[in-house]
Design brief:
A 3-stranded antiparallel beta sheet has the order 1-2-3, covered by helices on one side. The chain has a 3-stranded antiparallel beta sheet with strand order 5-6-7. The two termini are about 25 Å apart. By secondary structure, the protein is α+β, with helices and mostly antiparallel strands. A hairpin with a 2-residue loop joins strand 5 and strand 6. The chain has 2 helices and 8 strands, in the order βββαβββαββ.
C-alpha cells in the first residue's frame, strides 16, 4: 500500500490506485477506491484509463459484508476506513448502525450485492 500511486480525475478526486508489481513500475495492478483489484495487471497508461473509466460510480451500488445477506450502502471511504450501513435505512434517512471496514479492503470483505 505504501508504494501505491494515486490516480485522480481532472477535478482532483481519487478514482483508484496503481500498485506496482515490479521495481521499474512496468506492470501495475489497478485498484479501485476500495482497494479491490480492477482487472488484470497492466502497464501504466492502460491502468490509469481503466480506473478513469470505472470512476466512482460503483460506490453508489449496494454491497455485502463478509457474505451476510444485509445489503449495505457505502457512507465513507478514506484511509481511516470504509464506513457502511444498511442500505434501506440510509435511503430512508433513518438511524442505522454503522460498521467500519479496514481500508484498503485487501481481504475482499465487501462484495457487490
Amino acid at each position: 500500500m505504501q508504494e501505491w500511486v494515486r490516480v485522480t480525475r481532472e477535478d482532483g478526486e481519487t478514482v483508484g490506485w496503481l500498485e506496482p508489481l515490479d521495481a521499474g513500475y512496468e506492470r501495475l495492478l489497478p485498484r479501485d477506491v476500495l482497494g479491490h483489484p480492477a482487472g488484470e495487471p497492466t502497464e501504466w497508461g492502460e491502468g490509469e484509463e481503466r480506473l478513469q473509466e470505472i470512476g466512482l460510480r460503483h460506490l453508489a451500488e449496494e454491497w455485502l459484508l463478509d457474505g451476510a445477506p444485509t445489503r449495505l450502502a457505502l457512507l465513507e471511504v478514506s484511509p481511516q476506513g470504509i464506513v457502511v450501513a444498511p442500505a434501506l435505512q440510509t435511503k430512508a434517512l433513518a438511524p442505522a448502525e454503522r460498521m467500519r471496514v479496514d481500508w484498503p479492503d485487501l481481504d475482499g470483505r465487501l462484495r457487490r450485492a
